[in-house]
Amino acid sequence: MKKIIYSAALILTLSLAGCGSTTDFSPQEILNQALQETSELTSYYGEYKIVMNDGTEVQSKQWEKNGKNRVEVMDSTGEESLAINDGKKLTSYTKSTNTAMILELGEGSEGLVQPTLKEQALRVLEQIKDSHEITIGDDEKIAGHDTYHLIAKAKDSKSLFGDMEIWVDKKTWMTLKSVTTSGDLTVTSEFTKFEPNAKIDDAQFIADLPDDVVIDTETIKLPVEITIDEAKEKLGPFLIVPESTGYTLEMIEDMNMEETGEIALTYEKDDQQFSLSVFKPLQALDEDEETLEVRGVNGKVLDLEVFKLIQWDEQGLRYNVMLDNPDLTIEQILPIIEQMEFTE
Question: What are the residue boundaries of the structural domains of the chain, listed by start?
Answer without folding.
Answer: 2-219, 224-342
